[in-house]
Amino acid sequence: MGGKRPWDQRRLRLQKLLRDVRLEAGLKQEEVAERIGSDQSFVSRYERGERRLDLVELEAICTACKVKLEEFARRYSASRK
Question: What are the boundaries of each domain within the chain?
Fold first, then answer.
């Protein structure tokens, strides 16, 4: 997913941040999935960039990882520097 479209790098940053907040919370993919009412493959797919998330899903993931959505957005924005 590292093509030449301008949003590709942003998607890669998002994937990395999603994985980072999960790992920082000390959670396995299975644990996040359980907390959000999904399965491990859902978590795996969005972390690999095979599935996009809507805002409601992102908020649930942030809650599961004990990070505020606002903090997640701030970190995402700061990661482009």
Answer: 17-78
**How far is C-alpha 21 from the chain's CA centre?**
7
Q: Find out whether 73 and 35 touch, Cβ atoms under 8 Å.
A: no
Q: CA quadruple 74, 68, 21, 51: dihedral positive or negative?
A: negative
The pTM for the full model equals 0.88
Q: Where are the alpha helices (DSSP H) in the chain?
A: 8-24, 29-36, 40-47, 55-64, 69-78
Q: What is the pLDDT of residues 10-52, one digit of tens each?
A: 999 999 999 999 999 999 999 999 999 999 999 999 999 999 9
Q: Which class does domain 17-78 fall in?
A: mainly alpha
CA distance readout (Å), 57 to 2, 6, 25, 80: 23, 24, 17, 22
